[in-house]
Amino acid sequence: MKRKYDIKWEDSVDSTNNEALARIHDTDVLSVLAAREQTSGRGQRGNVWKTVPGQNLTFSIMLKFGTGLLPPFPAIRQFRLSQAAALSVVSFLKDNGIAAKIKWPNDIYAGNLKICGILIENSVSGAELRHSIIGIGLNVNQKEFPADLPNPTSMSIETGKEYPCLDIMLEKYITEFDRWLDMALSDASATELAGIYGQNLYGDGKTMEYRDTGSGERFSARISGVTETGMLRLEDISGQIREYAFKEVELALAKRASV
């Protein structure tokens, strides 16, 4: 990788994002905190990220801006970090023979099944991002999941392979992440990054069923694009363009009966 990342492994933490936040002010390097076990992993929408100890990759990347290692970064551009994180996972999975897509804004799906979740927590100071903690949970070797998870899968399920060395896998992923981070930090690459992100969205070009979480309305629409700040643009069957922020709309997906 081009930048040097300090990767630390812990046997058990409640949440890698929680632990990363507790440590971020004490580090002056690009850091990654990984855990063999998460006892209270957190996902999007306040969900719990459930994982079997030692079978998956659960880690948080700590980025501090304006420190010399990373340049100052305008808060208005923070969605680029979400794009970079999601695309780095898609690229990593592609390198391992798995075709994946991004379910807006940054869940990763193999087919219709969720293989990875991403939770990004940013700290803003004035008009700039102070730091970003990018938490990633990638299902690797786990084959059985709790019944209350609607549609999980893993790399092992998708490929039929076992992945014995999670440490090396994480190092390879971080190399991929660093490449996409370069694009996120560069204004010159913003249009290209957004274009690639759009091309890799789950359901891109298809008319699918969505639900407005505020009103409960269900409607059919296709993705029209994503704004620079991360708003999802949907064109419904009447031709109307609707814009939604995160948590304001959800894709209605069929649940998987069993794993």
Report what the structure shows.
Strands 1, 2, 5, 6, 7, 8, 9 and 10 form an 8-stranded mixed β-sheet that branches. The protein folds into 2 domains: 5-199, 2-Layer Sandwich (BirA Bifunctional Protein, domain 2); 208-251, Roll (SH3 type barrels), CATH 2.30.30. The protein has helices spanning 16-23, 79-95, 155-159, 166-185, 190-199; strands at residues 5-10, 30-35, 41-42, 48-49, 57-64, 73-74, 101-103, 107-110, 113-125, 128-138, 208-212, 218-226, 232-236, 241-244, 249-251. With 259 residues, it is an alpha+beta fold. Helix 2 (79-95) packs across helix 4 and helix 2 (79-95) crosses helix 5. The relative contact order is 0.15.
Question: How many structural domains are formed by the residues?
Answer: 2
Largest beta-sheet details: 8 strands, mixed
Q: Say which CATH homologous superfamily of the largest domain is assigned.
A: Bira Bifunctional Protein, Domain 2
CATH class (first level) name of the largest domain: Alpha Beta
* CATH level 3 topology of the largest domain: BirA Bifunctional Protein, domain 2
Order of helices and strands: EHEEEEEHEEEEHHHEEEEE
DSSP strand content: 25-35%
- Based on CA atoms alone, the radius of gyration comes out at 18 Å
Share of helix, binned: 10-25%
From the 3D coordinates, which CATH architecture of the largest domain would you assign? 2-Layer Sandwich
Number-wise, the strands total 15
- Overall morphology: globular
- The CA-CA distance between the termini, in Å, is 36 Å
Given helix and strand content, the structural type is: alpha+beta
Number of helices: 5
Output mean pLDDT. 92
Contiguous runs where pLDDT drops below 50 for at least 5 residues: 255-259
